[in-house]
Amino acid sequence: MGQAVARATLIYDGDCAMCRSSALWIMRRALSRGALEILPCRSGVRAERFPQVPEAACLTAMQLVLPDGRVLSGADAVPELLRRIRGWGWAAGVFALPGLRPLARRAYAWVARNRMRISCAPGGRDA
After folding, report:
1. What is the SS3 string spanning 29-54?
2. 91: phi then psi, degrees, rounded to nearest 5
3. What is the dihedral of CA 42, 43, 48, 53, to 10 degrees?
4. Coil, helix or strand for 103?
5. d(CA 75, CA 53)
6. Domain-embedded: residue 97
7. Domains held by the chain: number
């Protein structure tokens, strides 16, 4: 049985097939039922519950709203997400290695900028 973890909310670009697939993959593997909620950026629920997360921010990078209200963005959210995924908590420590965080931020930014070309091009979109 999974360990109890206070729920965090992952806000993602619901118009991007890669983002949707990634968010669903993460949620399905969360440590415990209810440990993670996912919301598309352009949903009214997101705008109402998390007005501190502007649409422009969540269309630029995923946003992870922690139970204490802090918001982690893009690559900075990855270690916390890894801690919340069954069998992946060990990988969160990798982000503490010297020099890795800046590299992760650059890699994440490149993928985020190119995500539509990577996964949402005609023929690559979900029907």
Report:
1. CECCCCCEEEEECCCHHHHHHCCCCC
2. -70, -20
3. -40
4. helix
5. 16
6. yes
7. 1
124 located within any domain = no
Give ∠ CA 107-110-114 in degrees, rounded to 5: 140
Return d(Cα 68, Cα 39) in angstroms, integer.
18
Q: Where do the H-state alpha helices sit in the chain? A: 17-28, 44-49, 55-60, 78-83, 89-92, 100-119
Question: What's the DSSP call for residue 88?
Answer: T
**Would the pTM count as exceeding 0.85?**
no
Token duo for residue 30: 């969360």
In terms of residue numbers, what domain contains 100? 8-119
Burial grade of 98 (CB within 10 A; 0-12, 13-18, 19 or more): exposed
Q: Is residue 76 part of a domain?
A: yes
| Under 8 Å between Cβ of 35 and 8 | yes
Q: What pLDDT tens digit does each residue of the chain (127 aa) get? A: 445 568 899 999 998 888 899 999 998 888 777 789 999 999 999 999 999 999 999 999 999 999 999 999 999 999 999 998 888 889 999 988 999 999 999 999 999 888 877 775 555 444 3
